Amino acid sequence: MNDIVPAASLIPADAPFPKAAKVALGMPQLRKNLAHATGTIRAKRAKVAGELDDWEQLRDTAAAVKAGVQRRLPELAMRFEERATAAGAVVHWARDAAEANAIAARLVREAGAEEVVKVKSMATQEIELNEHFAAEGLRAFETDLAELIVQLAEDKPSHILVPAIHYNRTEIRDIFDQRMGDAPAGLTDDPAALAEAARLHLRRRFLSATVAVSGANFAIAETGSLVVVESEGNGRMCLTMPETLISIVGIEKLLPETADLEVFMQLLPRSSTGERMNPYTSVWTGVREGDGPRHVHVILLDNGRTNVLADEVGRQALSCIRCSACLNVCPVYERTGGHAYGHVYPGPIGAILAPQLEPGRHDDLPYASSLCGACYEVCPVKIDIPEVLVHLRQQGPHAAGERAAMGAAEAVMARPRLWRTALRAARLGSMPWRRKGFVRRMPWPASKWTVSRDLPVPPKESFRDWWKERER
Amino acid sequence: MNAREEILARMREALQDASPAPEVPREYRRALDPGVDIVAVLVDRLVDYKATVHHGTAAIERALEGARRVAVPADLPAQWRVGSAEFVEDRGLTTEELDAVDAVLTGCAAAVAVSGTIMLDAGEAQGRRALTLVPDHHVVVVRRDQIVGHLAEALPRLDPAAPQTWISGPSATSDIELQRVEGVHGPRRLDVVIADERTGPLAGPAA
Amino acid sequence: MERVALFITCVNDALFPETPKAVVTVLERLGYEVDFPAAQTCCGQMHANSGYKDDATRLARAFDDVFGGYDAIVTPSGSCAAMARDQYPHLTGSGIGRRVHELSEFLVDVAGVEDVGAHFPHTVTYHPTCHGTRALGLGDKPLRLLRAVGGIDLVGLPAADQCCGFGGTFALKNSEVSSAMLADKCANAAATGAEYLAAADNSCLTHIGGGVSRSGGPRPIHYAEILASTA
Ligand code: SF4
Q1: What residue numbers bound the domain in which A412 lies?
Q2: What is the structure's pLDDT at A471?
Q3: How many domains does one find in chain C?
Q4: What CATH number does residue A211 fall under?
Q5: Which atom of ligand 1 is nearest to the CA of A323?
């Protein structure tokens, strides 16, 4: 049995992406786990998406619905508030993480509780609700299996959908064995046995909890309803059993009508877990007498989203439904995992969302992509991630040295005569390597290339010379 | 400015120069091809999720096999209460009482064939949400006329103001190496009984 | 005789003259008159994708000046064609990209041929480059051309759709991740046992070739050179 070393403690979250990625690349078990998991889910997604002959039409609709939501956000947010309130919910507004955390903590106290059970929610991770609660003397218990694993390991999530994707079954067994307290003796690494251990561990807590905290996948303006999509039933437990339910919902989660679910509930499960439908979807609208929580709160969260909304090109990042398909197909994510991104939203979506949510803090992330476009191809809401990456690169700051080099290159390329002279100079300058045909070592910054690849040398005769010769 | 006013103001400012929203195309399917046997598709999907499927209300007894005490919503039709189990009506059962029964037997509001989804909306014969959640074994009766091919056909049948639960197989997780394992916090056993009856106390054109 | 302009791209201009020569050979074999406007330089892709919009815009304008008078512009680079088609409208408002054809698009869609009369008696594996496949939607057009080549033995590349890790300045800025992607691509290429690895872009081929030259594996070759071969 191995000691538990949380991956996040090894990968420096504050380091620039290339540095953090280098550390992750040097962790063979992590890379193996990631390659196995992303490979499995890629194949499942491709199969169930391929089953629907109208997949592309669904994507087109979803993209347009979300674009429309963004344009109508004030109106839809107010309508949601009005309908949810009429149904007995209390709607709160939070400008930022601190405000959302403070409201949530106050509501927990008002309910006379010191503990809450939690459904997996990206919004609460984004605002670091658990950490904030701990600082206030409140405890938040994660109930999603993967979140539970991460919480027990004192690690950080590394994936939107499967926060513990970087652990394999044996590592998870070790974490349960050493950290769960009530783990069954002789626990094996059979996934069914591990799921059973989690069930037993959490059951009492579910049945006795008085307050739950959730996020939401969708908020329906027409009815004031919230929707949570899940698999294990921990969501249903949290949404049904406690007296008080607090849901923290990003303002971009709004959908105009219930009927929109006929589009999104086809796209989301197939894109995320690669299932035709997830085991459980819960929809609730305010308070229902005799059924579920008697106090229902909704905290509508901005926390940088209106920044994103202001950018004509970048705005499409708000269409994201957090399915994580883009992570699973990304060749960069597959090799580095999520921690290297240094943000709760990793992978391609993180690379366009993090720098917009926290301007100036993640300027390295738009470069963490080869622009291969695999993300755009699978995104169920058709976010043109490569387009936004290039756009953010064009907005962001540039190092002076690089700026000068790019400017010089452009100055030459914009003048055909200079360009031809430069090509001739390159051919002459490369004479010493001509016989070998390639260059193996170069000084910095070209050494970044030659670290793993040879560089070809310019040919003796250029195409231009050949063409001129021929024209004669 | 309070938070609400400030956020709304930020939204409006952000959208000042926004280009107009595109037209929403609606070219996707809203039904399966005519002639598709939707019951067969539903059964195929349910089996894929590792639910057990039975045909005819007489099979309820077999679906409940092994259960001595079975919780039911108070309005569950009498003809579904078959077999030797003791049927405990939910007239405000406590959590502990719910936890102590062996199974729960309910009806549903609709079922979607193509995704193998059974939908509850707290309507007739369905009871409240805790009833179908706490017991470890859920037996649900689906009438043939409640089965539709496509999700788009099912949504109009649900009460939008009522709490809804859409169930696609027993509780499951894919959190370990992204492999699906059945049975976590929700009912670990799901039995679906497809009832032939099209009329009876529960009949009536849904939507 | 129909006249087409040849845009050879800056990478080929500097390093790979055999590729544009091959394009000339193939087009002339099919009866086209090929023009090479000598004032051409670079489409501006490196600048645009590295975040230098103003530089890219100037290069896009220059492209318009050089090629504005042609109805059909053929280029042996999927990513440069995608640049003109996808990004020029945003940079300069120019619609010239619609007249820029990657070679296989021109041959299959415009000229309407798949068999260009080539002969190449070797085993070849084909890597569909990302920009060619996803941004430009080349689909299997280059492969259809290759299948029609006499004597060729085409073998499948495992995980063909995975990026080779080039990505322009990505290869320098995120050199380690790029190298890890390259290592997988090289291993998959070597596993085919092919003599040649063909692709539609010499920048990707430079990258893969730079790795293969150390780890061993098939020789990189632009598919245009295979189409030109009659050996
Ligand atoms: S960006 Fe698209 S693919 Fe990625 S998580 Fe969001 S919705 Fe899914």
Answers
A1: 400-471
A2: 83
A3: 2
A4: 3.40.50.10420
A5: 8
Take residue A30 and report the two structure tokens written for it: 């992590």
Report the C-alpha gap between B71 and B1 in whole angstroms.
52
pLDDT in tens, C9-54: 999 998 999 999 999 999 999 999 999 999 999 999 999 999 999 9
pLDDT in tens, B16-40: 989 898 899 999 999 999 999 999 9
B159 phi/psi in degrees, rounded to 5: -80, 110
pLDDT digits (tens, 9 = 90+) for A421-471: 888 888 887 777 766 777 888 777 788 888 888 888 888 888 999 999 988
What's the CATH number of domain B32-195, 3.40.50.10420, 3.40.50.2000, 2.60.120.260, 3.30.379.10?
A: 3.40.50.10420
Q: C 76-95 residues with CB below 8 A of A?
A: 87
Whether C106 is in a domain gets the answer yes
State whether C106 and C9 are in the same domain.
yes
Average pLDDT, chain B: 93
Pairing of strands B110-112, B147-148: parallel
Closest CA to C83 of C53, C44, C41, C126: C44
Give SS3 for A193.
Answer: helix
C14 in contact with A, Cβ within 8 Å = yes
In angstroms, the CA A150 to CA C88 distance is: 46
- The domain in which residue C166 lies consists of 123-228
Whether the predicted pLDDT of B201 surpasses 70: no
Q: Is residue C180 part of a domain?
A: yes
Q: Write out pLDDT tens, residues A119-151.
A: 999 999 999 999 999 999 999 999 999 999 999
Residues in chain A where the model's pLDDT stays below 70: 1, 434-435
Domain boundary (A305, A328, A349) is at A305
Using a 10 angstrom Cβ sphere, with 0-12 exposed, 13-18 middle and 19 or more buried, the burial of residue B78 is exposed
Per DSSP, the three-state class of C143 is helix
Same domain flag for A149 and A280? yes
Give pairs for A385-389: CB < 8 Å, separation 24+: A385/A326, A385/A348, A385/A349, A385/A351, A385/A352, A386/C135, A387/A313, A388/A313, A388/A314, A388/A316, A388/A317, A388/A352, A389/A348, A389/A351, A389/A352
Tokens of C206: 């430079």
Query: How far does the CA of residue A25 sit from the closest CA of chain C (Å)?
Result: 7
Cα dist from A124 to A127, A131, A213, whole Å: 5, 10, 9
- The residues lining ligand 1, judged by C-beta closer than 6 Å to any ligand atom, are A 271, 320-326, 349, 378-381, 383
Is residue A126 a part of any domain in this protein? yes
Cα–Cα distance for residue pair A264/A258, rounded to 1 Å: 10
Domain count, chain A: 2
Q: Is residue C159 part of a domain?
A: yes
What is the torsion angle, in degrees rounded to the nearest 10, for the CA atoms of residue A79, residue A80, residue A84 and residue A89? -120
Give residue B198's pLDDT. Answer: 60
Cα B89 to Cα B69: distance, rounded to the nearest angstrom: 10
Close Cβ partners of B67 (under 8 Å, ≥ 6 residues apart): B85, B101, B102, B103, B137
CB spacing of A53 vs B29 below 8 angstroms: yes
Q: Rounded to two decimals, what is the model's pTM?
A: 0.94
CB-based contact A103:A92 (threshold 8 Å) = yes
C56, C78, C110 — which closes off a domain?
A: C110
Q: How far apart are CA C158 and CA A433, in angstroms?
A: 34
Chain C contact present for A4, CB below 8 A: no
User: Do C97 and C146 belong together in one domain?
Assistant: no
What is the pLDDT at residue C3? 93
Per-residue pLDDT band for B182 (boundaries 50, 70, 90) equals confident
In a domain, A17, yes or no: yes
Last residue of a domain, one of C110, C137, C162: C110
Residue C135 belongs to domain with CATH number? 3.40.50
Whether residue B184 and residue A236 make contact (CB cut-off 8 A), yes or no, is no
Average pLDDT, chain C: 95
